[in-house]
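Reading a protein record of the kind used here takes only a little practice. To see the layout at work, look at the sequence and tokens printed below.
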Amino acid sequence: MKLTAQLREKSGKGAAHQIRRQGAVPGIIYGIHGEMPVTLRENELNSFIKAMGGSKKLFELEVDNKGTKTAKTVVLQDYQRAIYKDLVEHVDFREIEIRAVGTSKAVKLGGVIQIIRHSILVKCRAANIVEHIDVDVTDLDFGGSIHVLDIKYPEGIRPVVSGRNYTLITISGISSEPDAAPVSAETAAPAADKGKADAKAKQPAAAAKPAAPKK
């Protein structure tokens, strides 16, 4: 189930009235990086809300920003209808955030956590809806990654995955921990022989044997 919205620059009551006069509906996405004002087509939104049947389902909202489209996993949080006619006047969405928790050894050594996907599509009942899903990165090392099917989800929530087990979080960078220089077999043998020679040189000389008595 998908819905499309247009990102809008203007907000406030004046802008909202102008949007409604054009046959559209103003809305807000309460997301990871703050509020995002959007505009939706009135007929599409009304059909979508009727199809939802009052349930709180997570779905993908496609936001178009001057041709650049971004998919956000949201829940229909609230909407307002006009008193004098059965039309939606305003709608609110909430984005479900992926949040990295814990500190991995790699980060302590200079690694950087990269969140590849900030939101995912999940299935749950309305009572189980959460604002964020925590992903533990404590055991994540350099070059490691966590996929959508690898994490532990809150009770009553399961991911909706069609196709590959896509990546959510990775650790990038190079360790700042100094590494010991590798020693080859060719250099190890002479070093060992030199050590033996040095040890032999440091040993006290053996006392000379007394001469045999003359007959």
